[in-house]
Design a protein that fits this description.
Blueprint: H1 3-23, E1 32-36, E2 43-47, E3 61-65, H2 83-92, E4 98-102, E5 134-135, H3 154-162, E6 177-180, E7 184-189, H4 192-218, H5 237-249, H6 252-263
Parallel strand pairs: 5-6
Antiparallel strand pairs: 1-2, 1-4, 2-3, 4-7, 6-7
Bound molecules: zinc ion.
Length: 280
């Protein structure tokens, strides 16, 4: 595929991703998705200061330098203050080509209780069985900082990116998703389809785990204990390995459905659509 066609396909899918994440409750007026430029890894793209559902054309997108999240074009319109989430993840991890940030309400119980979110079914094996790590922004604040929880500078973005790796100098992320204390979550993927899949099933997993724990609380065993340790039955280590492989293999199928859903919904406009064949 020629470079310009490849870029067009990625732009088209970035616009679709904005709509899909809104349609599936991962973002509302807040939250964002970005993609690394397919021909220039030192640049990433995301929409300007607007609700994701309203992104409609390449004119709505801003090009940023990975090095410092400055705009490639100094005359670019206003962008998201939390673009440093994206810039610092792209800077640290060369294999990451898509980043999503969300405040999905289903995930919020796991960023304010200390209860670990774990994969509870096969579709979310990428979350793992140990508990998704939680990033706490507070220790990174300095005197005079406005403690509004936003990851709005490179220092805070770098701190969040560090939570995706278990070793200080690792350049491959160990985590697919990191929760953010009193805020939400961020996730990464090698392409748009992978990251969107992970964001949607993170939200669904959180909802399922919460419901499971609520049911368990009201249905203890005859000794008053949970049937399963924490009130829910997380996947095993072996299932984690197997489902990670399986999930990677079948992400293109839901993408075709998700694209059709947003194409047929008059709320969403995509001047580069329609096309169901994902750019990967
Ligand atoms: Zn946020």
């Amino acid at each position: 595929m020629p470079d310009d066609m490849n870029l067009q396909a990625v732009l088209r899918d970035l616009i679709y991703a904005n709509h899909i994440l809104h349609h599936h409750g991962v973002v509302d007026a807040y939250g964002h998705v970005s993609v690394r430029h397919p021909d220039d890894p030192s640049v990433y793209l995301m929409c300007g200061y607007m609700p994701p559902a309203l992104v409609a054309s390449p004119n709505d997108l801003i090009y940023y330098n990975v090095a410092d999240s400055s705009t490639v074009d100094p005359d670019s319109p206003k962008g998201y203050s939390e673009r440093f989430i994206h810039g610092e993840l792209f800077r640290r991890f060369p294999s990451v080509n898509c980043v999503i940030h969300s405040h999905a309400e289903e995930v919020l119980p796991y960023v304010v209780t200390g209860v670990k979110m774990k994969s509870v079914y096969h579709m979310s094996g990428f979350l793992g069985s140990d508990g998704v790590p939680v990033f706490d922004i507070d220790p990174l604040y300095q005197e005079g900082d406005q403690r509004d929880m936003l990851v709005n500078n490179a220092r805070l973005g770098e701190g969040l990116a560090a939570k995706f790796a278990r070793e200080p100098n690792a350049t491959e992320p160990d985590e697919t998703v990191v929760l953010m204390r009193r805020h939400g979550f961020s996730c990464v993927g090698r392409d748009i389809v992978t990251a969107v899949y992970r964001a949607i099933y993170t939200r669904i997993n959180a909802e399922a785990q919460t419901k499971a724990m609520a049911i368990a609380k009201n249905n203890p065993d005859p000794h008053g204990q949970f049937v399963f340790g924490e009130g829910f039955d997380a996947i095993t280590k072996e299932q984690e390995k197997g489902t990670k492989i399986m999930c990677e293999k079948f992400q293109d199928k839901p993408w075709r459905l998700w694209v059709r859903e947003v194409e047929r919904n008059p709320l969403y406009e995509n001047t580069l659509g329609p096309n169901h064949q994902a750019s990967r």
